[in-house]
Amino acid sequence: MKADYDFSKGERGKFYHPDAVFSFPIYLEPDVNEVMNKLANEKGVEVEILVNEWLRANIKLIESVRRTN
Question: Residues 39-53: pLDDT tens digits?
Answer without folding.
Answer: 999 999 999 999 999
